[in-house]
Amino acid sequence: MPQNRQDQGRLWAKVVARAWADEIYKKKLISDPAVVLKAEGIEVPQAAQLKVVEDTTTLRHLVLPAMPAEAASLDEDALSDRMAADFFTAGFSTGGY
């Protein structure tokens, strides 16, 4: 059964909390994210390649998502609204970016 974004967000929050608390778990998450995420019940599309990067107090990573297929038919405001709705939750969806 496909997960909704709220469920994915909760599961991801648990992964993050555990990675903050357990250095060995964090290293495994960084080195083999698909295995860790699947073990935590997060659906990962079979063909997805995942990369986990860690922010620090002085370095922040910003991800520029892939452009959605229907972008050509949407104006900038519609695209902005879609991004706002999907922000932080589109990472693992198979129907999103």
Task: Give a quick rundown of the structure.
It contains four helices and no strands.
Please explain how this structure is put together.
With 97 residues, this protein is an all-alpha fold. It has one domain. The protein is built from 4 helices and no strands. It has helices at 5-21, 23-31, 33-39, 76-86. Residues 93-97 have low confidence and may be disordered.
Counting helices, strands and paired strands, the structural category is mainly alpha
- Helical residue percent band: 40-55%
Termini separation comes to 20 Å
Radius of gyration: 15 Å
Inertia-based shape: globular
> Runs with pLDDT <50, length 5+?
93-97
Total count of helical runs of at least 4 residues: 4
Residue share in β-strands: under 5%
Largest sheet: none
Structural features:
single chain; 97 residues; mainly alpha; globular; disordered C terminus
Give the helices and strands, then pairings.
Blueprint: H1 5-21, H2 23-31, H3 33-39, H4 76-86
